[in-house]
Design goal:
This protein is mainly alpha-helical. It contains seven helices and no strands. α1 packs antiparallel against α4 and α6 runs antiparallel to α7. The chain is globular.
């Protein structure tokens, strides 16, 4: 069961990463955008270690500009999702927690991207056996999706 859950979570992480890659944008500079795009190309061509190095560089560059640089949260999410896909949950967890903290401080908690990140963090808690933590995070994600109108009239039987 654990292997199946890990595989499903890994696959979901891959889809989340691709979704995040496609939607990346709004960086502080053209070179910052280029780094994220270079990482995207490396990832899509199967060079995950190159993508990780590029995104780590982007993260370091963004940190010099502070939390207002959109590359910071984008790099944190891309790196975390890559690590989730590779089942490196212990490495991904602090990145997602930091991403979530920054988003909360900015007040950017009412959109599908935030809910997706909360789901990813919940998945890590679940894989690590912290079912109470996972449940609380999944509930938060549902709340965000309900408030954004993403969940309407779902009937449970």
């Amino acid at each position: 069961m654990g292997s199946l859950r890990s595989s499903a979570f890994s696959l979901a992480g891959g889809f989340a990463l691709l979704s995040l890659i496609v939607s990346a944008g709004g960086c502080a500079s053209q070179s910052g955008r280029q780094n994220l795009e270079d990482g995207k190309r490396a990832y899509l061509s199967g060079h995950k270690s190159d993508a990780e190095l590029i995104w780590l560089e982007s993260l370091a560059d963004a940190e010099a500009f502070g939390e207002d640089d959109p590359r910071l949260t984008q790099s944190l999410r891309m790196l975390a999702n890559l690590q989730i896909q590779e089942q490196r949950y212990a490495e991904a967890k602090p990145l997602l927690e930091r991403w979530m903290d920054i988003k909360e401080r900015r007040g950017e908690v009412d959109d599908p991207a935030f809910a997706d990140g909360v789901d990813a963090l919940a998945g890590i808690h679940m894989v690590q056996g912290d079912f109470n933590g996972a449940a609380a995070l999944f509930e938060r994600s549902v709340h965000v999706r309900e408030n954004d109108g993403m969940i309407d009239n779902i009937e449970l039987s």
